[in-house]
Amino acid sequence: MDEATFQRMLDAARAAQANAYAPYSGFRVGAAVLGGSGAVFGGCNVENASYPVSTCAERGAISAAVAAGEKAIVAVLIVGTAADPVPPCGFCRQALSEFGASMQVVLVGEGGVVKERSLADLLPEAFGPSFFAPRRG
Ligand SMILES: [Zn+2]
Is 58 annotated in the active site? Predict the structure, then answer.
């Protein structure tokens, strides 16, 4: 990913992170996904008093991209409030794989440390629609 795209995604993720709703954990996360069109969409974690109802930043960004008509996601960038880069949870790895198993995953720690991975590295042998004949919505 070129520097301009990285910066665009980082700005979107940080803007979303500033709006994170995390009154229970205090752990504010922002994510940005790069759609196949080149557009960037941000998301943040949204916690709930009923803890399992909470959603992660990555899935918020996916929803924003899909709502805008994106069919593929090329990359995801995630920023957390930990000094070290925070990887996506298992739930989000599966959610991301639906839109591009080969997508680039960029993790940014609050201290500025950047890690780059592929989704295939983070979720090998992922479950997907190739195992059955889904009706696409
Ligand atoms: Zn997650």
Answer: yes
